[in-house]
């Protein structure tokens, strides 16, 4: 690789000008002629109930109402809002047991806020007012909020296909004894000198992307179903909607608008099916559906909460001999991502340390909570909270330094990665740990913070993580990219990858510019149109730069090859004897023999024939590059966070003083983008560790589905942040890059928990670690 | 459940106090007064329903914020939290009020939310209300039959309920002038910086050298209304504030409060920590800004 | 429901409109006048996506303001900050410091930054953070936003030029 011209530079992001002036159009900003407004009627009286009567008659009479829809007025097909089933092979789909268990409107309410009907009206206000007039009566059913509730033998069954309300467990066929495992765990524990074991709770954290769900759908005059949405995965949503409404893909179009944050909340479908159902009821009229924040909360997926048990065994010399774990998650009302997260939560565990043997069991139980699905990290923050606290407990008993222990026992190149059988091909975690430790003066502070006695006590803790760039081989990783070389020698890159704000259109453009050796300004990334863009599985799994970038690179290489072939033809030279500089292709060693890209591009389109002779000039036709790209690997990102906290032992309050995040990013295509991912991830990781949880009362009524009641770290709460980007190019990533979209959220979770442990000498087993829990734990410690 | 669209109501825009009072006399319990609207408009997006909203936007004369060394601080019905923060008198003479304003809500909210609206909301968590409760205050209310004054000590009746009659407009609030040696402070605990209090406390101590000659100690989030802690006040009055006394006070607080579990904290925690908070706010008052 | 005829000066342009009593300033700006740069994020005063400036400096929540009470007022939205095609120094600082990700908070954030610097041209980091409360960003962790405000402060006061 020669010197990089665009990659690694802080170029201006493609989208920031329109965002800073407010010109960027998000779904709610799109206004179409003849727009109607939808309002979904939800059950806010119960979390589990059967609708015994539904009276729409008063609503129909309201001013401005066009139509009122009950459960029977829309498609009767069931669906699964998740798209996981579209990213695996047909065989695997059967093994995983994903089912369709959602309907547009239901007469069996399974969570607070389940949808029972809808109104379409001429204004938002008219729709709201009419919706209030819809009267339903209910028969209350028992409410199940935890796995333990749901698995009681006499519990009402959510789905006949899922006995015991066990929506998912690792399937025997692929995972003997329903476990993700290697070695003989029980035997290994027999060799352990030290065993640590505990049961944890991980919380129902919400993405809280700033743009609440907003959708427009239009069943147009060509009988095409259009949907404007800020989805993370346009191509899969297109296919899902086509399936649901039994339309060919040519008649379903997703218009991806600017996306106001995703973090998993827009993975798969959210309210696209409902909005489309409304649009199908009023052909020719666009229908807009704007969720209030509180509705968005209940209808988009959250992180999977649940009970997470773990046991680890070590030899006296620190050797990790065995790890046994079980995650029973509280799935919520519908299946959605039941299989995916239940597996990956264990995959991240398996990918971290060199235990002689390991067994992980993951089970998803239906509960009467709002749905869970993807959230940045996809199981990894949960595992980090538990695994890293267990490791530190082990280190404490071993008398080992937590950094030294981790350096010795983390998996590295050649070891099986998070997927058994796919070994790691790069790893710079040691460098991450060393540099982070130095940046925060780890050794000095670990000594200094021993035996504190004051009211306020400092603590310092570390956590590490492994993740993935794209989900190969778990998912069928695939992105299609077309490159159109215009006659003026600029290029449009067409692909379906969404930019949720993470900066991927910028980094993809950098990859294109670097590969083509064109200036950054000569490239445009066209996305958002599912008519034009080829297949892609969406923006998730830290895959957009790695897989999307791989596709862009391959398609641009195709363009370059064609350019060189045409130049070779014109210059009557062998293509291998040519080189390009400033968009001019030269013959090596013959400075006077050259042709510009501009000439080639223009010739192919406008000047391919001599008007006098009719002879062809060069090779006619517009140059287009194409790639249907399948990544060879999953370029594992690694990272370490060291957190320093101060705990007030009289109030239990925690102040986070500093976070140092050191990440093995392969290559930072755009350092500002990478830092931004780590900063933003850390804010969410700290929230998971310290403040964020969705609460329900015993009847299943959600108590804090709003920013008033659910609290995230704000500007004054954030600590001093230091990001260290360790650039150790991955052999398979575009220019060596790994995915960093999710990594940032993960290790701050465990590091914060461990820093608190270091400060006060007790571990808090339930996330979030609130002052209430800390004080209680301190009291118990003092009483013991 | 919330709606993106507010409930229907008629917005009335009187242009004088007299007009406002006439409107309140006409509509009585069918009207709500709109000051900054940061409580009222949120309620109107939820289940609260009211036919008429009487806005103070165009009413002149309600934005006085005046300090007089004898009469004390006069706060008009339209004075915002941001106005308090701009006043050097508030900062100098009423540290508790200034501190409560400083951490109150958000800059946008502080620019619109009024001090009197905070009091009229009768929330058991109100921050400025609590500071003023410790400092002492008298509200002036007016209806068609005339004006009356109500001491804050008698104003909050239960959660969200005050001694204000439906047809009364609150005109202003008078906070007494600080005597020499008065020290006050406010402190709150929240889950994150921007939040409603999960526990707050304010004190106003009359000091004569090292001796405290009189004290008002108020707490929030520990009952249906803001409350005062009479036992603690008695312990302080006539005493030198020693670490031992502070510890005794800290141990006493729990017996004076009756907190509940809610989304922001638990009764158990509040019982445990309230004493710590009171101890710290007293120290803060005495050390004028430094409670460590 | 009563309707009110009002005049708003938005980004320097005078606009007459008739609003029902319950219309928020946010909805009036977005739906009646097309200023979709002002965003709805929560409707309850928590997130600041709906922030606008009154008289070019005082930040308020559009979602908790009745349009009908704003007759005769001058409102600035993010779309009104640029002058003659040149971005406001605060906007430029947001771009240069990578302070923008999904951008949904950005219009409110830049207005907030303008108001912070109007009140205090040389704020400390702590003052900037305090001033940014009430504007939620879920993407950036605020670090780069704080940097941007600091940078804008320097630009506006001519430091480092
Ligand atoms: C995001 C957010 C954060 C908040 N944070 C805090 C916080 O940190 N601390 C805190 O204490 N509060 C907080 N609040 C609550 C609120 O901002 C305060 O209670 C505020 O002071 C209310 O003042 P207002 O002028 O906005 O009241 P309004 O909403 O206008 O009125 C409140 C009540 O008082 C009545 N009222 C107002 N003025 C009069 C009058 N002159 N005569 C008769 N009745 C009157 C109204 O009818 C209404 O019932 C917060 C609110 C929000 C939305
Ligand atoms: S929309 Fe106004 S503060 Fe969130
Ligand atoms: S940039 Fe996305 S919320 Fe701030």
* Unique ligands: flavin-adenine dinucleotide, FE2/S2 (inorganic) cluster
User: How many beta-strand runs of chain C?
Assistant: 5
How would you name the oligomeric state of the polypeptide chains in this document?
heterotrimer
What's the CATH class of the largest domain in chain B, please?
A: Alpha Beta
Q: Which CATH architecture of the largest domain in chain B is right? A: 2-Layer Sandwich
Identify the most extensive interface between protein chains. Answer: A-C, 56 and 52 residues
CA distance, first residue to last residue of chain B: 43 Å
Radius of gyration of chain C: 16 Å
Overall number of strands of chain B: 15
Low-confidence sequence ranges of chain B? none
Fold and architecture overview:
- The complex is a heterotrimer of chains A (784), B (292) and C (161).
- With 784 residues, chain A is α+β, with helices and mostly antiparallel strands.
- Chain A has 20 helices and 27 strands.
- In chain A, strands 3-5-1-13-10-11-12 form a seven-stranded mixed beta sheet, with helices on both faces. In chain A, strands 7, 8, 9, 14, 15 and 16 form a six-stranded mixed beta sheet that branches. Chain A has a four-stranded mixed beta sheet with strand order 17-25-26-27, sandwiched between helices.
- In chain A, helix 10 runs parallel beside helix 11 (380-398), helix 11 packs parallel to helix 19 and helix 18 crosses helix 19 (746-760).
- In chain B, a hairpin with a 3-residue loop joins strand 4 (65-68) and strand 5.
- Helix content of chain B is 34%, strand content 26%.
- Chain B contains eleven helices and 15 strands.
- Chain B folds into three domains: 10-55, Uridine Diphospho-n-acetylenolpyruvylglucosamine Reductase, domain 2 (2-Layer Sandwich), CATH 3.30.43.10; 65-175, Uridine Diphospho-n-acetylenolpyruvylglucosamine Reductase, domain 3 (2-Layer Sandwich), CATH 3.30.465.10; 182-285, CO dehydrogenase flavoprotein, C-terminal domain (Enolase-like, domain 1, 2-Layer Sandwich).
- Chain B has 292 residues and is an alpha+beta fold.
- Chain C has five helices and five strands, in the order ββαβββαααα.
- In chain C, strands 2-1-5-3-4 form a five-stranded mixed beta sheet, with helices on both faces.
- In chain C, helix 2 (89-96) packs across helix 5.
- The radius of gyration of chain C is 16 Å and the shape is globular.
- Chain C starts with a strand and ends in a 5-residue tail after the last helix.
- The chains are: A alpha+beta (784), B alpha+beta (292), C alpha+beta (161).
- Chains in contact: A-B, A-C, B-C.
- At the A-C interface, helix 1 and helix 18 of A face helix 2, helix 3, helix 4 and helix 5 of C.
């Amino acid at each position: 690789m020669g010197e990089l011209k665009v990659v690694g530079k802080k170029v201006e992001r493609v989208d920031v000008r329109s965002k800073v002036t407010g010109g960027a159009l998000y779904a709610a900003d799109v206004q179409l002629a003849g727009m109607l407004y939808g309002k979904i009627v939800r059950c806010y009286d119960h979390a589990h109930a059967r609708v015994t009567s539904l009276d729409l008659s008063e609503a129909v009479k309201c001013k401005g109402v066009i139509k009122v829809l009950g459960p029977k007025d829309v498609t009767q097909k069931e669906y699964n809002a998740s798209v996981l089933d579209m990213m695996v092979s047909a065989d695997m789909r059967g093994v995983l047991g994903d089912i369709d268990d959602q309907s547009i409107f239901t007469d069996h309410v399974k969570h607070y806020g389940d949808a029972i009907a809808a109104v379409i009206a001429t204004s938002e206000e008219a729709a709201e007012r009419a919706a209030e007039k819809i009267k339903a009566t209910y028969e209350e059913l028992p409410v199940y909020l935890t796995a333990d509730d749901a698995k009681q033998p006499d519990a009402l069954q959510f789905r006949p296909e899922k006995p015991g309300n066990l929506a998912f467990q690792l399937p025997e066929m692929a995972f003997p004894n329903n476990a993700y495992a290697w070695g003989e765990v029980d035997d290994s524990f027999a060799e352990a000198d030290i065993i640590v074991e505990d049961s944890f709770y991980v919380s129902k954290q919400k993405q809280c992307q700033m743009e609440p769900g907003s959708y427009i759908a239009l069943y147009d005059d060509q009988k095409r179903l259009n949907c404007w949405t800020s989805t993370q995965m346009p191509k899969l949503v297109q296919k899902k909607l086509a399936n649901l409404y039994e339309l060919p893909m040519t008649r379903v179009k997703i218009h991806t608008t600017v996306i106001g944050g995703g973090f998993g909340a827009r993975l798969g479908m959210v309210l696209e099916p409902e909005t489309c159902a409304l649009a199908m009821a009023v052909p020719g009229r666009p229908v807009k559906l704007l969720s209030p924040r509180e509705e968005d909360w209940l209808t988009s997926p959250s992180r999977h909460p649940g009970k997470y048990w773990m046991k680890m065994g070590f030899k006296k010399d620190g050797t990790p001999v065995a790890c046994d774990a079980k995650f029973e998650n509280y799935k919520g009302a519908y299946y959605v991502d039941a299989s995916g997260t239940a597996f990956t939560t264990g995959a991240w565990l398996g990918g971290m340390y060199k235990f002689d043997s390991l067994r992980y069991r993951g089970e998803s139980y239906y509960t009467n909570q709002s749905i869970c699905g993807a959230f940045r990290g996809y199981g990894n923050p949960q595992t980090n909270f538990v695994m890293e606290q267990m490791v530190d407990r082990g280190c404490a008993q071993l008398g080992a330094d937590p950094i030294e222990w981790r350096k010795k026992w983390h998996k590295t190149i050649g070891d099986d990665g998070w997927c058994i059988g796919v070994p790691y091909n790069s790893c710079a975690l040691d460098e991450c740990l060393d540099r982070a430790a130095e940046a925060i003066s780890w050794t000095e502070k670990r000594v200094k913070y021993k035996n504190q006695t004051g009211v306020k006590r400092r603590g310092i803790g570390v956590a590490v993580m492994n993740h993935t760039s794209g989900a190969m081989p778990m998912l069928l990783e695939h992105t299609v990219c077309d490159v159109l070389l215009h006659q003026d020698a600029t290029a449009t890159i067409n692909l379906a990858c969404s930019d949720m704000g993470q900066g991927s259109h910028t980094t993809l453009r950098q990859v294109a510019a670097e590969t083509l050796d064109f200036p950054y300004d000569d490239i445009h990334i066209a996305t958002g149109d599912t008519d034009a863009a080829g297949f892609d599985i969406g923006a998730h799994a830290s895959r957009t730069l790695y897989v999307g970038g791989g596709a862009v690179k391959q398609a641009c290489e195709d363009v370059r090859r064609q350019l060189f072939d045409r130049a070779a033809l014109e210059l009557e030279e062998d293509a291998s004897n040519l080189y390009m500089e400033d968009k001019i292709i030269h013959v090596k060693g013959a400075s006077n023999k050259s042709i510009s890209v501009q000439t080639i591009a223009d010739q192919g389109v406008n000047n391919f024939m001599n008007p006098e002779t009719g002879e062809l000039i060069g090779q006619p036709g517009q140059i287009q590059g194409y790639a249907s790209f399948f990544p060879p690997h999953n370029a594992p990102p690694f990272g370490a966070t060291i957190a320093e906290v101060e705990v007030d032992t009289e109030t239990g309050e925690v102040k986070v003083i500093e976070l140092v995040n050191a990440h093995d990013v392969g290559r930072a295509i755009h350092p500002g983008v990478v830092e931004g991912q780590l900063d933003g991830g850390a804010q969410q990781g700290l929230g998971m560790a310290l403040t964020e949880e969705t609460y329900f009362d015993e009847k299943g009524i959600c108590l804090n589905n709003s920013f008033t009641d659910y609290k995230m770290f704000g500007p004054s709460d954030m600590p001093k942040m230091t990001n260290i980007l360790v650039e150790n190019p991955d052999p398979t990533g575009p220019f060596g890059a790994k995915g960093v979209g999710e990594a940032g959220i993960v290790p701050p979770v465990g590091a914060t928990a461990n820093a608190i442990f270091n400060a006060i000498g007790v571990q808090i087993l339930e996330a979030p670690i609130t002052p209430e829990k800390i004080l209680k734990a301190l009291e118990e410690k003092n009483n013991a | 459940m919330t709606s993106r669209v507010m409930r229907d109501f008629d917005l009335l825009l009187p242009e004088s106090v007299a007009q406002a009072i006439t409107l309140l006399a006409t509509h009585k319990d069918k009207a709500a007064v709109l000051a900054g609207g940061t409580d009222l408009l949120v309620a109107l997006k939820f289940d609260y329903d009211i036919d008429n909203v009487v806005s103070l936007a165009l009413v002149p004369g309600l934005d006085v914020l005046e300090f007089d060394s004898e009469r004390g601080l006069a706060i008009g019905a339209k004075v915002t939290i941001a106005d308090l923060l701009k006043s050097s008198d508030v900062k100098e003479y009423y540290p508790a009020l200034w501190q409560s304003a400083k951490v109150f809500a958000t800059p946008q909210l502080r620019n619109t939310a009024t001090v009197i609206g905070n009091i009229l909301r009768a929330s058991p968590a109100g921050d400025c209300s609590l500071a003023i409760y410790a400092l002492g205050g008298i509200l002036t209310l007016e209806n068609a039959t005339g004006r009356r004054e109500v001491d804050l000590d008698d104003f909050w009746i239960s959660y969200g309920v005050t001694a204000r009659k439906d047809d009364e407009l609150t005109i202003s609030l008078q906070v007494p002038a600080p005597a020499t040696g008065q020290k006050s402070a406010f402190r709150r605990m929240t889950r994150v910086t921007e939040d409603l209090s999960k526990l707050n406390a304010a004190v106003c101590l009359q000091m004569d050298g090292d001796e405290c000659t009189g004290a008002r100690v108020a707490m929030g989030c520990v009952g249906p209304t803001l409350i005062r802690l009479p036992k603690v006040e008695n312990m302080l009055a006539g005493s030198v504030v020693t670490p031992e006394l502070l510890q005794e006070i800290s141990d006493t607080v729990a017996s004076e409060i009756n907190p509940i579990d809610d989304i922001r904290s638990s009764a158990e925690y509040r019982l445990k920590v309230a004493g710590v908070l009171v101890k710290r706010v007293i120290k803060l008052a005495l050390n004028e800004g430094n409670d460590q | 429901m009563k309707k009110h005829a009002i005049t708003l000066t938005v980004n320097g342009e005078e606009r007459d409109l008739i609003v029902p009593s319950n219309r928020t300033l946010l909805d009036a700006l977005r739906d009646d006048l097309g200023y979709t740069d002002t965003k709805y994020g929560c409707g309850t005063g928590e997130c600041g996506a709906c922030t606008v400036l009154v008289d070019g400096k005082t930040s308020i929540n559009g979602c908790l303001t009745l349009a009908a009470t704003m007759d005769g007022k001058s409102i600035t939205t993010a779309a009104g900050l640029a002058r003659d095609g040149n971005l406001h120094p605060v906007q430029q600082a947001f771009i240069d410091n990578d302070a923008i990700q999904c951008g949904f908070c950005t219009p409110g954030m830049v207005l907030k930054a303008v108001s912070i610097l109007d009140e205090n041209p040389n704020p400390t980091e702590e003052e900037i953070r305090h001033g940014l409360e009430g504007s939620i960003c879920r993407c950036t962790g605020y670090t780069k936003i704080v940097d941007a405000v600091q940078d804008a402060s320097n630009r506006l006061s001519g430091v480092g030029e």
